[in-house]
């Protein structure tokens, strides 16, 4: 029994052992596979850790970046400019929009600066209110009810006929309408007759820029209805018409502050434009600026074909009055006789081109009617390639400009009929043009001018309070006319003489100065002689002459004294240097009479060094130049006599 039991137990143990051994062998296989999986998982885990680390770093960098941006934005909000209210920003942006060129770029640029600026710009309809052919489609949706500035200028290549249908529905919002390049193939603006334009403040209508007055005269006029905008423009203040013009009988010509008419050819059916213009001026009592240039009409060819205005037209607010190239002088006279001008007026008269022998169209025809001559304290007379007179008041404001256009033959070839335009103009200036309160006079007269010095002296002597004189771009005239003789003392009240861009020789200048500073016993106590002399770019004056001049005149101021072969800093011919507020102001003040400009000292040192190096040659040159100057002076004296 016992052996049986042992055998059975042995079998049981053996069976269990086999089972365990089998399980162990299977476990070893599973362990190897598990190790492979574990190794793979570990490798993947390492990769995941690397990716997570990189992602964490990227997230941290992004968070840091946005944190810095956030902090920077908070810091920017604390800066003074970002603490301004939106209304202030709106005002600043309004001024940031340029008038021209390309004002439509401004809102786009401002909107690209920052989010807050973009929000502000998008909420400002006025920034999008400048409309042309390229911006109409995109900007009009943002303007809301803001006033519109419509422009179709010379630089626009967008057809006006394509722009009009887009902007017409917004006519009640038009503030400025500028059609400066109306195509000749656009027959009329008749559609504007029924459009409401109650907000319109400025209207400019001009034809193509043909660049030639003869072609302008032949250019066909556009048909513009007299009842433009139904005649209902209560806010219209500025009207500018060129080539094309609204009929002068239109009710639109009322209540204006600025009126400009240029290059307009009226037809006989338009009536007398001069009378119509005077009627318009009387309907604009607050007019500040009036320009009328190159107006042609068949009905104005006769001097008696227009009625006379019974009462003067008072324009107390008028600041600038311009008549440019009005061909018939009776029209100019009618304007000047019919208007009462204020004391602060800037009057500008430009003569029309005419034949030199035709003296009926010269400026002296209306000299007696020019206002405010007694208010002119500074005057400039210029006779170069053109002729002109300019006058300033005591505060430096321009009161008068009389000009002949450039290119007019002021000096014709010499001959029996040498009484040319320049001479006649100077005669008229001395006889009819009284400016009793002038204290400063600037003159520029070319040497080839036929104006004789007696004419110049007669005009200068008429200024009884003259104390300062500028002579610009002069070789001998008119500075030589200031020489005092036994019979005549020109401009006895002159105290300060300025020579600018002058090639006058030292000997001649010394003779002029000696004659004006030497006194006689019977000389009036009011005549004190020359007290100050200013030389600007007088390159012929050497250091020796300056030394002698200082012994004659209490104050000698110089600037730009160079040798003739040194052109550094020389001013161009015709450069206007005059009056104490001008460029050479540092050299005209009598308070600085005891000092010389530093520029003169530097130049003098250079000249002194050059003189030491070539004393003998310079002496010979000076002797020759003085001899030549004496010969020239003798010849000129004989010519004058």
UniProtKB/TrEMBL annotation:
Region (Disordered) location: 589-641
Compositional bias annotation for Acidic residues: 593-604, 612-641
Superkingdom of origin organism: Eukaryota
SUPFAM superfamilies: RNI-like
InterPro entries documented for this protein: LRR_dom_sf
Listed name of the protein: F-box domain-containing protein
UniProt source species: Botryobasidium botryosum (strain FD-172 SS1)
